[in-house]
Amino acid sequence: MKEYATFLGCIIPNRYPGIEATSTSILKYFDIELLPINGASCCPAPGVFSCFHLESWLAIAARNIAIGEETGQDIVTMCNGCYGSLAEANHLLNGNKELKDKINEILSKVGCEFKGNSKIKHMIEVFSEDIGVKKIQESMKNTLDGIKVCTHYGCHFLKPSEIKKHGSSERPRFLDDIVRATGAESIDYKDKTMCCGFGGGVRAKDIDVTLDFTREKLKNIILAGGDCIVDQCASCHLEFDRGQAEIKKIYGEEFRLPVLYFTQLIGLGLGMEQKKLGLEFQNIPAQSLLDKINGGRK
User: Fold this and answer.
1) In what order do the strands lie in the sheet with 148-152?
2) Comparing C-alpha atoms, which of 259, 264, 263, 266 is closest to residue 286?
3) How many CA atoms lie within 13 A of 18 on its CB side?
4) What is the location of CATH 3.40.50.11810 in the chain?
5) How confident is residue 298, by pLDDT bands cut at 50, 70 and 90?
6) CATH 1.20.1050.140 spans which residues of the chain?
7) Which helix (H) or strand (E) holds 203?
8) Is 124 in contact with 178 (CB distance < 8 Å)?
9) CATH assignment of 133-295?
10) In this predicted structure, what is the pLDDT of residue 156?
11) Would you say 166 and 158 are in contact if contact means Cβ atoms under 8 Å apart?
12) Which of 52, 80, 265, 286 holds its CA 20 to 30 A away from the CA of 16?
């Protein structure tokens, strides 16, 4: 059985535990075990923290990596922001001995040492590379035929592309290939790779700007005929799910577009119950999607 150390970040355990539960359960099905990283802190957010004080950001990120390294396994994240922070810190420190020594001097005060031995992977890479779309496709028990999915990759997984080498950052394929493996249809829509609106501290500073991004994405998905949006990032997931509730409250617009983390979509194809997927704990009900799936079963 393959093992990974798991960096959960902040949003998943506090807001969307269904993402963790679903991902953990499905990986066990495919003989992959997730090990906890005990004592981890916030990643911290790469788009904001590093701009204010690079060394503080690196020290916190390096500590998280260091305690993950203690498991002897590579580290996997379920959030693009966490992935961005840990992967970029790992890249910077492994490429600059002077900086690495400086950060390790800081970490020595709390009994930690960054070695740089663990690879940082995103959950989507584990499913794409370790499991593979063919095995996912062969494991599906429920038909998702007729379900039109609009995927959202998010920013920190794709860029900077010189560090995150996932092929084209403008025309990514990872998530779309997995959606197709479930039997659902992945459809294109306008401004597919545009930010959800969460990133860069915008949500905390100006909710109107954030929700303007979110509304634009949701309108484009509805116009394309999407039944749901499938993402791979906890922050983006919160933005599309919680953001819809905020848009209704502030602007009076209601979209009711189900939001699924990609492992929740795979879970539907594997026949997992809604309760085990954690869908009923989200702001936007997934009943319209479930009804369509159940109505399409042979």
Assistant:
1) 185-186, 148-152, 228-231, 259-261
2) 259
3) 24
4) 133-295
5) very low
6) 2-122
7) helix 202-205
8) yes
9) 3.40.50.11810
10) 78
11) yes
12) 52
- This prediction has a pTM of 0.94
Q: Rounded to 10 degrees, what is the CA torsion of 39, 41, 46, 51?
A: -120
Where residue 126 falls among pLDDT bands split at 50, 70, 90? very high
Q: How confident is the model at residue 265 (pLDDT cuts 50, 70, 90)?
A: very high
DSSP code string of 28-79: HHTTEEEEE-TT------TTTHHHH-HHHHHHHHHHHHHHHHTTTS-EEESS
CA 194 – CA 256 distance, rounded (Å): 20
For residues 175 and 153, what is the distance between their CA atoms, to the nearest angstrom? 7
From edge to edge, which strands make up the β-sheet containing 120-122? 32-36, 2-7, 75-77, 120-122
Residue 292 banded pLDDT, cuts 50, 70, 90: confident
Residue-averaged pLDDT of the chain: 92
Q: What is the pLDDT of residues 2-19, one digit of tens each?
A: 999 999 999 999 999 999
Token pair 């495919």 is at which residue? 30
Please name which of 144, 178, 93, 130 lies closest in space to residue 268, comparing C-alpha atoms.
Answer: 144
Q: Which of 208, 260, 278, 253 is nearest to 13 (CA)?
A: 278
Residues 2-122, CATH architecture? Up-down Bundle (1.20)
Distance of alpha carbon 230 from alpha carbon 293, whole angstroms: 15
What percent of the chain stands above pLDDT 70? 93
